[in-house]
Amino acid sequence: MSGYAMKRHLVRVRILHVVIIVLLSGLCVTLVEGGFYIFNAFHKKNITIAGDILKRNFFQDDDALGYKPKPNMRVTSIFKENDTVIYNAVYSTDNYSRRLTPDHADGIPKKKFALFFGCSYTFGEGLNDNETLPYFFSRLQPAYRSYNYGLSGYGPQQMLEHLKRKGVETEIAEKKGILIYTFIDHHVNRVIGTMRSYSIWADIMPYYFLDEEQKLVRQGSFRTGRPFLNAVYGVLNKSQVVKALNLDFPKIRGHHLLLTARIFDESKKIFEKKFKSNKFYVLFYPGSQHVRSLKPYLQQFKIDYLDYSGLFDPREPQYHITGDVHPSAAAFKILAEQICHDMPALAATGPAAP
């Protein structure tokens, strides 16, 4: 065999090896994905949302926030897993689309406001209007009127968008007060629009990033602001392995925490300007694991925080709705009591709780 023929033979052999490797790799991937498809199908939960919350279109799109509740609504939300009712709650909103906080102390003048921001924990998913954190706070502090701006799925960027709205201060009757943002670890995922949050619901949420000069910039929503990355996430999210192992991308890094803190910082500045108050607090909900890594960034921007990460174990049955991760009324009652216990110090100096 000539040298030329030998080279052609070796090339063909190498190509054959590559083809075999590609085919075997594809077969392995197919087998693994198929196995996990069966696993996921076997472990799939039959989740049903009943009541009139969907029938009456409780949620509506919003250019600034992504979505929000409709104003002046009263709906029932029934959450079922298979045939078991996890919760059956009534949600009410006021004319500004805020979750209604019933006033139990008629006749007592409201001298101050308490603005509550956050996600489903602040909103009180699975609980009635008189079982939320804002409700228990106003019950213990009757001179304060609580305003609940929280909503399921929200992150820090929705607080910023709320505060940026023209005339937001006119929605509040009282002239002095405080703001409390209830933080859970997943809020960092929502700030950066991780693969799972983007793929499930957060695609229309506000998309913020820090530019080369470390300035906070909004570029539409996650859906419109980063199409290439969204396409990559779309492919990854279809993987049965990713679903089975509950994988999410990217891993939370320091610059993600910095972005989160910058959103808090900008929110605080706007709150101070519009409401003439420096009583702005980030409350770490019990069980937070990001508390240690996020604290230095909050301290960098002089943002006060309430570290309640060790107040109780949220996994204990009395502190969450049975069959669900969302807090129970008992958990919010304890949280409100702790806030009120710390109120004298907060009102006097505004320090961060230890």
Structure description:
The protein is of the alpha/beta class. The chain has 2 domains: about 1-45; about 45-350, SGNH hydrolase (Rossmann fold, 3-Layer(aba) Sandwich), CATH 3.40.50. Helix content is about 40%, strand content about 20%. The protein contains 12 helices and 12 strands. The chain has a 5-stranded parallel β-sheet with strand order 7-6-8-11-12, sandwiched between helices. Strands 1-4-5 form a 3-stranded antiparallel β-sheet, with no helix packed on it. Strands 2-3 form a two-stranded antiparallel sheet. Strand 9 (about 205-210) and strand 10 form a beta hairpin. Helix 4 (about 155-165) runs parallel beside helix 10 (about 255-275), helix 5 (about 185-190) packs across helix 10 and helix 10 (about 255-275) packs across helix 11 (about 290-300). It is globular, with a radius of gyration of 25 Å. It starts with a helix and ends in a 6-residue tail after the last helix.
